[in-house]
Design a protein that fits this description.
Aminopeptidase, 14 helices, Alpha-Beta Plaits, 2 domains, alpha/beta, elongated, 9-stranded mixed β-sheet, 4-stranded antiparallel β-sheet
Length: 434
């Protein structure tokens, strides 16, 4: 962070008027700064891969804060941390949280802000003597980012029972260590990981505060917004197969060059989402060329297309169009193509009645209730398949994320905490009355 700590930078532009109803900007800044020192990198980012010692250290620090705030704290076989605060009744709990693992050299807000916002709500209740009507849980999910195994949101999927043994046993990290080996070194096992599935009837609602990771709130000069849904990603693995040859001795006529087919395909993919919806996106971010020699016509090109939309029907329609385009480009270039659906997760919309209630909460704080889509996946997407769910986005400076330059002003973060607190109290009243 240069000459100044994260805490000093956060507090430098903070609007102290938001210190009210028991919520403390300084406390949130101090805790964000404390987590930023765990796994800190040379340019002020963090490196806390899932199931690493640094991720475990960050969890232990938050567990300590949870216990000081009066929570009963435990962790399950997937390494998820669950802090539970008793309520006036034993009704299903209102839960909130996020994660503390990071991408390599990631930022200081993606994940930790959601965890610490949830904790700050409980600190505010403690300071004001408020007792929640139903139990309140703060959850830290394991391996949300997926930087360890190339498969994210594993902790939340374990909690909801959405994982199977074949999938987890087939995972390995970049060092070639099998999933089973990694989780055993972490203090668990594959059996315990899969056994982390809990009775989801214990959770009446799940909410998550998260940075936007985009520029819409900043462009609108708004501190926070309402997530109307989380786009569902589908990944297509595409492999074009041709004939290798010498770049100098093979005539242009009759070549079977898979890279030419791949190039045409990638160029066309970017124009396809607009055919289906305003929110659909398609991205080719990975490509491997073999044998990848300067003077060799390639024999094979492998790539992955990341396809997302908020609506499953339009997303799946786009997947079909991408397949069709790959087949046509291959045929036009005289090469073969193999296409495999590597992953598909359904989009998760936030229910209209939940968004309506959030709009009322925003109105109570004199905030414009802008609604926006999340293109990225979150633990809320997994919980939202099973229990009512809401997400609140906090403004991101320049839309930067997964980078040491990731930044959200403390005043915007505090708006997120106040919104979560008001919304939680409303939902708890509903849960208690059911």
């Amino acid at each position: 962070m240069g000459k100044h700590s994260l805490k000093e930078k956060l507090l430098a532009g903070y609007d102290g008027a938001l210190d009210k109803d028991g919520i403390s900007g300084r406390r949130l800044a101090e805790r964000l700064a404390a987590l930023s020192e765990i796994g800190r990198t040379g340019d002020g980012g963090v490196n806390r891969p899932g199931f690493s010692d640094k991720e475990k250290e960050a969890k232990r620090q938050v567990m300590e804060w949870l216990e000081e705030a009066g929570f009963e704290v435990r962790h399950d076989g997937a390494g998820n941390v669950i802090g539970r605060l008793k309520g006036e009744s034993d009704a299903p709990a209102f839960a909130a949280g996020s994660h503390v693992d990071s991408v390599p050299n990631g930022g200081n807000f993606d994940g930790p802000l959601g965890v610490l916002s949830a904790l700050e709500v409980a600190e505010a209740w403690k300071d004001t003597g408020f007792v929640p009507q139903v139990p309140y849980e703060v959850i830290i999910f394991s391996e949300e980012e997926g930087s360890r195994f190339g498969a994210g949101i594993l902790g939340s999927q374990a909690m909801t029972g959405d994982l199977d043994r074949e999938k987890v046993e087939g995972l390995s990290d970049k060092e070639g260590r099998a999933f089973a080996e990694v989780v055993e070194a972490y203090g668990s096992s594959v059996d315990n990981f899969l056994g982390a599935a809990r009775n989801l009837g214990e959770i009446g609602f799940y909410a998550e505060v998260h940075i936007e990771q985009g520029k819409l709130l900043e462009a609108a000069d708004l501190p926070a917004g309402i997530v109307k849904g989380i786009a569902g990603p589908a990944w297509l693995d595409v492999a074009f197969h041709g004939s290798a040859g010498h770049a100098g001795n093979t005539p242009m006529a009759g070549r079977r060059d898979p890279l030419v087919a791949a190039g045409r395909f990638v160029s066309e993919v970017s124009s396809l989402p607009a055919l289906f919806s305003e929110t659909a996106v398609a991205t080719v971010g990975r490509m491997n060329v073999s044998p990848n020699g300067t003077n060799v016509i390639p024999e094979q090109v492998e790539l992955t297309v990341d396809i997302r939309d908020l609506d499953k029907e339009t997303r799946d329609g786009l997947v079909g169009k991408v397949r069709e385009t790959a087949e046509r480009c291959a045929a036009d270039c005289g090469v073969n193509v193999d296409i495999r659906l590597a992953s598909s997760i359904d989009p998760v919309p936030v229910k209209e009645d939940v968004r309506a209630e959030l709009r009322e909460v925003f109105g109570e704080m004199d905030l414009n209730p802008m609604e926006l889509m999340s293109g990225a996946g979150h633990d809320a997407m997994i919980l939202g398949r099973h229990v009512p769910m809401a997400m609140i986005f906090v403004q991101s400076k320049d839309g930067v994320s997964h980078n040491p330059a990731e930044w959200s002003d403390l005043s915007d973060c505090l708006h997120g905490v106040h919104l979560l607190k008001k919304f939680a109290e409303r939902q708890m009243e509903k849960i208690a009355g059911e």
